[in-house]
């Protein structure tokens, strides 16, 4: 029980939220490139323009945050949020008024 609780506070989720301009063909191309690059880094779509990535520690999360920062396009708004597995596990997701199942969390393998 203690290890599970400790892991829930050590394991992190990185959330990238963005609103990029898409008025011109060049802007759409840059937005698509940014999306493709964060997907290649292991992020998965949570909602439109909101992507999540599971990290086993804050140190690992910082590596991916730094990588996302290196990919930032010149224009647009990008937010990067890091939350613990415990906090992310409390999320309530709705489709209209109907509550839907929360995203699957990654199971952590423990070796003794």
Automatic annotation (TrEMBL):
Subunit field text: Homodimer, forms a heterotetramer with a Cas1 homodimer.
Keyword line: Antiviral defense, Endonuclease, Hydrolase, Magnesium, Metal-binding, Nuclease
Transmembrane residue ranges: none
Pfam entry (one): CRISPR_Cas2
InterPro entries noted in UniProt: CRISPR_associated_Cas2 (IPR021127), Virulence_VapD/CRISPR_Cas2 (IPR019199)
Functional note: CRISPR (clustered regularly interspaced short palindromic repeat), is an adaptive immune system that provides protection against mobile genetic elements (viruses, transposable elements and conjugative plasmids). CRISPR clusters contain sequences complementary to antecedent mobile elements and target invading nucleic acids. CRISPR clusters are transcribed and processed into CRISPR RNA (crRNA). Functions as a ssRNA-specific endoribonuclease. Involved in the integration of spacer DNA into the CRISPR cassette.
Keyword hit for Cytoplasm: no
Highest taxon listed in the record's lineage: Bacteria
Uppermost EC category: hydrolase
Name of the protein in its database record: CRISPR-associated endoribonuclease Cas2
Binding-site list for Mg(2+): 19
Entry's family note: Belongs to the CRISPR-associated endoribonuclease Cas2 protein family.
EC number: 3.1.-.-
Gene Ontology MF: a single term: endonuclease activity
Species the sequence originates in: Polluticaenibacter yanchengensis
CC cofactor: Mg(2+)
Entry keyword annotation includes Flavoprotein: no
């Amino acid at each position: 029980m203690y290890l599970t609780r400790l892991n829930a506070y050590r394991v992190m989720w990185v959330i990238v939220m963005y609103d990029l301009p898409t008025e011109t063909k060049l802007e759409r191309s840059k937005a698509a490139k940014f999306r493709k690059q964060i997907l290649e880094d292991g992020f998965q779509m949570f909602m439109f323009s909101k992507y999540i990535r599971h990290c086993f520690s804050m140190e690992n999360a910082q590596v991916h945050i730094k990588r996302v920062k290196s990919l930032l396009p010149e224009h647009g708004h990008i937010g990067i949020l890091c939350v613990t597995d415990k906090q992310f596990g409390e999320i309530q997701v709705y489709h209209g008024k109907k509550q839907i199942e929360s995203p699957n969390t990654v199971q952590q393998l423990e070796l003794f």
